[in-house]
Amino acid sequence: MVQQSAGSDPLEVDKVAAKRNSGSTFTQCDRSPDKQPARKPKTPCWLCGAWHYTRFCPYKSHLCTRCGDVGHKEGFCPPAKTLPSSKRKVSLRKKFQHRGAKTTPRVSSTYELSSVSSNVYRRHISVNIEKKAVTFQIDTGSDLTNISAQTWKQLGSPPLSNTSSVRATTYSGDTIPLRGCFRCAYSFGTHSVSGTCYVSDSSSNNLLGAEWIFKLGLYDQPLNSLRSSLQPEDERALICSPEIHTLSASNAREYVHRRYPEICSDSLGHCKFAKASLRLRPDAQPVFRPKRPVPYAVVPLVEAELDRLEKLGVISKVNCSAWAAPLVAVRKRDGRLRLCADFSTGLNDALEMHQYPLPTPEDIFSTLNGGTVFSQIDF
Q: Where in this protein does the record put region Disordered (predicted)?
């Protein structure tokens, strides 16, 4: 205990020490900033080699004269992380220049990095540009639709417009050099629109941008039903290739209906490549056969089918004719009627036969040997 006597000066306490049961001593710490030891990093700075933290390095904004990069001292250039040529594809190399200093080219920005392990996750689609098929990689993050200079030449090198007012950049902010742009008509499935296509000097993949994706209605379609990431050479390979395991039966059916709408539509088909003609024999005599009776319950269906065929232009009404053949009404699986004319009642015998050798079953089976895809024709 410290006690002050009467009439004496006050006592000043500089330190109080007390012993506890553990034997440890507690001392008042001197908090002077000049006497506090400075903390040092465990490893030297990887930008210059000095013993300080990287965030305090004065070479963070220094331009290296050896590699042309910014952010480190000469002699501390980071090693280039290279991959085998079969697993990488660098589409752009940029070179930094510095006031007459001799520099070497260095990869500073990458448009595309492809490898065997990443290609399986990409989706590609074939779009017709001016009636020529072009394979695009679907890129919803790109605002512009871009093709390479090689693809532009394959399209016939259409005239390009100036793109000085358009600045295209990558995700990292690097500028993409554009050769120009051109207006074109493009289509996919039932969608046919027009828009602007940009041409770059790089040899990277053709990218289908968000504008074209929206106009072609691809946002409403499953990606697996559009096209496989394996990029088959043609649409036949897409349907028949055994590697397309992600394309289910329902998606394949939707794709075929969208790719060939005229063939898969419910409307009546029209042959535009040939014109049929019937040639009568010189001694042929007209044959007129009366109609055959049909059940009264079927009469409304027969009349409705005749009206439908007349509206489609398949048949036309006549008031009089020397030739007549009875109708045969056959019910389909869906309940509708199919009307057929029975020309065996006289017209077939009056026609000049077109002699064509019909193949035998052996010839047919020999021709179909090795086939994998067959179609069923319903007569």
A: 1-42
The structural domains of the chain, with segments of one domain joined by +, span: 36-76, 119-264, 278-367
- Which residue, chain included where needed, has tokens 């009366």? 290
Q: Which CATH number fits domain 119-264: 2.40.70.10, 3.30.70.1450, 3.30.428.10, 1.10.3660.10?
A: 2.40.70.10
Longest dimension (CA), the chain: 162
H helix count then E strand count, the chain? 9, 8
What radius of gyration, in Å, describes the C-alpha atoms of the chain? 42
Residue 266 to residues 21, 48, 262, 263, 269, Cα–Cα distance (Å): 99, 75, 9, 9, 9
- How would you classify the pairing of strands 178-188 and 124-129? antiparallel
Separation CA 220–CA 377 (nearest Å): 32
Q: What class has domain 278-367?
A: alpha beta
Residue 129 pairs with which residues in a beta bridge? 132, 186
**Residues in contact with 105: Cβ distance below 8 Å, sequence separation at least 6, in sequence order:** 93, 94, 95
Contact by Cβ (8 Å): 258, 189: yes
pTM of the model: 0.34
Angle at 132 between CA 127 and CA 136, to 5 degrees: 30
pLDDT per residue rounded down to tens, the chain (379 residues): 434 444 444 444 444 444 454 444 444 444 444 555 567 788 888 888 888 888 889 988 888 888 878 888 888 888 754 444 444 444 334 333 444 444 433 333 334 444 444 566 778 888 889 888 888 888 888 888 989 888 888 888 899 988 888 888 877 777 888 889 999 999 888 888 899 999 988 767 788 898 998 988 888 877 766 654 334 444 444 434 333 444 556 667 777 777 778 777 777 777 878 888 889 999 999 999 998 988 898 899 999 999 999 998 889 999 899 999 999 998 888 888 899 999 999 999 999 988 888 889 898 888 888 888 887 765 5
With a CB cutoff of 8 Å and minimum separation 6, the contacts of 51 are 40, 41, 44, 45
For residue 218, give the amino acid letter: L
Contact (Cβ atoms closer than 8 angstroms) between residue 137 and residue 228: no
Q: How far is CA 161 from CA 136, 179, 181, 204, in A?
A: 22, 9, 5, 21
